[in-house]
Amino acid sequence: MNGTSQSNARVTDGGTSAEPLLEIRDLSIVYDDDVIAVDHVSLELGRGETVGLAGESGCGKSTLALGLCRLLRPPAVITSGSVVYRGSRLAAGGVDLMEQSSRELRKLRWREISIVFQSAMNALNPVLRVRDQLGDAIDAHLKLGRREKQERLGELLDLVGIPRERLRSYPHELSGGMRQRVVIAMALAAEPEVVIMDEPTTALDVVVQKEILAQVVELQQRLNFAVLFITHDLSLLIEIADRIAVMYAGRIVEIGTAEEIHSQPSHPYTQGLLGSFPSVHGARRELAGIPGSPPDLRALPPGCPFVPRCAHAREQCREIDMSLGRVDDVDASHLTACPFVRPAAAGDWSRAARTAEAGPAR
Amino acid sequence: MAIAVSAPVQTAPTARRGEFLRSMPLKAKIGGGILAVFVLIAIIGPAIAPYDPSAISATQSVALPPNLHHLLGTAVDGGDIFSQLLVSIRGTVVLGVLTATFAALLSVGFGVTAGFLGGVADEGLSLVMNVFLILPALPLLIIVLGFLPHTGQLPTAFVLSILGWAWGARVIRAQTLTLRGRDFVAAARETGEPTWRLVVFEVLPNEISLIAANFVGTFLYAILTSVALAFIGVANLSNWSLGVMLYWAQNSTAINIGAWWWYLPPGLAVAILGMSLVLLNFGLDELGNPRLRRSTKSRRRARGAKAWRPTDATPVKRLEVAP
Amino acid sequence: MRFITRRLAFYVVAAWTAITINFAIPHLLPSNPVEVMMARHPEFPPSARRALEIQFGLGHQGSLLHQYGVYLDHLLHGNLGISVLNYPASVVTVLNNTVPWTILLVGSATIISFVIGTLLGIFAGWRRGGWFDKALPAFTFVQAIPYFFLAELALVLFSSDLHIFPSYGGYQLGDTIGFNGTFIASALSHSILPALTIIVTSMAGWMLQMRNVMITTIGEDFVLAAQAKGLSTRRIMFTYAARNAILPNIAGFALAIGFVIAGALVMEIVFSYPGVGYQLFQAVTNDDFPVMQGIFLAISATVLVCCLLADVVYVLADPRVRTRAAY
Hints:
By secondary structure, chain A is α/β, with parallel strands linked by helices. Chain A has helices at about 60-70, 100-110, 120-125, 130-140, 145-160, 175-185, 205-225, 235-240, 260-265, 270-275, 350-355; strands at about 20-30, 35-45, 50-55, 75-85, 95, 115, 195-200, 225-230, 245-250, 250-255, 325, 335. Chain A has an eight-stranded mixed sheet with strand order 6-7-8-3-9-10-12-11, sandwiched between helices. In chain A, a hairpin with an 8-residue loop joins strand 11 (about 325) and strand 12 (about 335). The mean pLDDT of chain C is about 80. Chains in contact: A-B, A-C, B-C. At the B-C interface, helix 4, helix 5, helix 9 and helix 11 of B face helix 1, helix 6, helix 7, helix 8 and helix 10 of C.
C-alpha cells in the first residue's frame, strides 16, 4: 500500500498469449533538452485489446502515441526505454522499435501499426483523390494485382459505410464525418495489428461521434486489431475501452480496467476528471472540476506534479517517485501513482472532492 | 523579391520599446545598420563632396584611375567619381524614401479600406489593385517618364509609387481581412467605438510590422526600378543618382576601357543598399511572424545538429542513468 | 470553370486598362506631342510628322472619344502605327523582327530557371540543416544584388576579360539569317551568356520561394500521415509535399511575370541582344514613341497571356479551386 512496488508491474491482459502485443517499457521523450514530455512510461497492449489513454491537453498522450513509433520531429528525442512489438507476422520475440533504423521502421509502419490522426481534414492530402490515398497505403505494403486492389479499395469503403463512388472524390468534397471514416479506412488498409487513434472524434459533433465509435468497435470485433485510444474524454473511454491509463504531466498516474477506473478511481487526478463530466444518466450531481492548470513541464518540482491542484496534498508528496503501485490487494490490474489516496465509494468521489475542498487530509 | 501569396499569420502583440529593440533579429540589425549609413551619407554627402559632381574638365578626355586628387578617379570628361557617388547616393535614397512614402499611403489606404469594408467595395478595390499589379511596370514607366524627360524627384517618385503600391495593398488587405474577423474588433464595435477610431487605434497597430516591411520592400523596388530606368536612359540626367552614374559609365563604355572605378562603386552601392533592404525586410518579417523566428537556443543547437529529413525516425539518444 | 471565367473577365479589364492608358498618355500632355517631337528632333524628315500624327491619333479632327474609337479600330486591325526611327516601317514590322528573339531567350530562360529553381527548392526544403540551410545567409546576399549588376559583371568577366562568349548581338554579323548551321550556331553562342545570367539571377528567387513553402508544407499533418503510412521517400517528397507546396508558387509565378520580363529586358540591353528590350532602348534613345507604345502593348499582352496560362495550370493542379471563385 505504500507504493514501493516495482514500476514494471506486469498486467495480465487476458488475451490468448501471455506476452503483450505491444510493450512500452520505461519510455521517456524530451523536447529541446529541457521539456520532459513523457517520463518513464510503461504500458502494454494485448492482442485485440482496447486501451484508452486519457488526460488533459499537453499531458503527453499524443507525444507518447507518436513517439512510440518514432514519428516525432526534432527537437523531440527519445531518451530512454524500449517499445517491443510482437506482431504475428514477425519472428518470435518481436522487435524493439527503438532499435530499428528508419528503413526497417518504414516496413513496419502501417502494416503493423497504423494511426488515425485527430483532424481528418489535415491528415488527408488535398490534391489526391480518396482512391489514390487509400491506394498508396496498399501499394506500399501489399502486393496486389490491379483488380484485387480495386476490390480491396471498395471493401475498405464498405467497411466504414461510405458509398463506393466516393473513391473518386477529393477530401474537400466530403463531409467531416465522411473524412474521418476515410481516415479510419485508410488506417485499416494494410491490415495492421495495432491502430493508434489520436482523438479521432474530438472535432466532430456528438451524433457523428457516436456513429463512428460504434463503427470502430464493430470493426475491431471483426478484424481483431488492438487499439490505443487517446482522448481527453474519460467518460468515452469508460464506454469503449478494456483498460484505461490516465496521464498527467508526462506520467501515467493510474491504470486499470475500465470498470475499476469507473467505479474505484484512486488517483486524485482521476477522481477529479470523473467529477468533471456531467452524466446524461443517473441523478444530478454537483460538478467539481479541477482547480488550477497543467504545470509547466520545464520547471517541474520534485515528487508528484499534481500537488498544486490536489485537495489531498501533503508534505510527503514531494518525496515520492511516481512509480505505480497496487490500489488494493484484490486486483493486480489496478495501479496508481499516489500512495496516499484510495478510492472513495462508487459514485461518491464528488462528495470526496467536496469534503477535500474543506481542507487537505493531514 | 518576396512572392509570398498566402495571408499573413497572426501578428505578435506590439511589445514594449525596450524589448522590441533587443529582440530584433540579427538580420534586421545588420540591414538597418547599413541602411543607416546610407541615410547618413545621403544627408551629409553633398556637403563633404570635394568637387561639384557635374564639373567637367575641358581638357580631359580620358578616365583617370583613383589618385590623390580624386579618391575614386574620374570619368572620361573629368568628373570626380567620389563626389558623384556622394551626391548620387542622396539622389537615390531620397527617391526611394519618397516613393516608399507615397506608396505606403496608397497601399494602406486601399488595403485597409478594402479589407475592412468587404463586399462590393472590396471587390471593386481589389480589381483596381490587381489591374495595377499586373500591368508591366517598367515599360509603362519608360513611356510615361519618356514623355516627361525633365521631371524632378517628386513627380518621378509619384509615378513610381503609382505602379508600386498594389503589391503592398494586397498584403495589407489580406491582413486586415484576418484582423476584422478577430474578437477584439467585434468587441470594440460592440462598445460603440467609431469606425475610424477602430481602424487607427486597434487595427493599424497590429499591422505596423507589415507596413514597415512593405515600406522597405517598396524602397527596394524604387531603387532597382529607378536605376534600371536611368540605365536605359529615361531618367532626368541633371539629377545625380546611382542609376545616372551607371548610365554614364555604360554610355562611355567604361567596361570596355577597364575603368572599374567608374562602374564598380555605383554598382556596389546599389547592391549593398539593396542587400541591406532585403535583410531588413527578412528581419521585419521575422519580427511580425514569431513562427519564423528561432530562439537563440534552437539556433545554437541547429548549428551543431545533424541534417534531418521528414522520412527520418525520431532519434534515440539514451541518457546516462543517474546513480 | 467559374474560376477561369472570373479570371478571364479580369484579364479583359486589365487589357482594356492597358490599351486605354496607352492611348491616354500622349493626350494628357499640355502641348501637342507631335510638335514637341518635331522640335526636339530637327533631324526627322517631314514624313515623320505624318507618322507621329497617325500614331497619336492627332491627325484627325474630332472629339477625344472619336479619336479613341479610331485608335481602338486601328488596334483591332493590327495597326500599331509607324516607327519614327525606322520610318516608313510599321511598328508591327519592327516587332516582328524583335519579338522572336526575345521569346527565344527570355521564354526559355524563364522556364528553365523556374523548373530548376523549383526542383532545387524542393530538395533544399526537404533536408533541414543541410547544405542549403548553412549557405542561406550567403545566398540571401547574392539574391539581393540587382540583376543587371550581375549581368554587367558577367559581361566583364566572361566576355571582355576571358573572351569565352561573344559580348553583344544576337548572332555574328555577316551571317545570313535562316535555318542554316552557321547561323543557328552563332545564334546559340550569342544567347548563352544572356540566358545564363537570366537563369542564375531569377533561379535564386524561385528556389528560395519553393524552399520556404516546402518547409511549411512538410509541417502539415498529411505529410506526417504519409510518413506514418510508410511510403517511399520519393512519394512523400513529390506527391505529398511538393505537389502541395508548388501551388502558391504557381500563383506567385503569374504575379512575378511582370518583374521577370522587366529584368530580362534590361538584360537584353546590357548584352545588346536584338530583342524587344534592346529595341525599347533604341526607341527611348531616339524618342520613337510609336514603337515604345507598341512594345508596351505587346508586353502587356504577353503578361496577361502568361497569367492566364498560369491560372489554367493552377486549376489543373489544385482540385479545391474548381469549386471556389478565387485562389
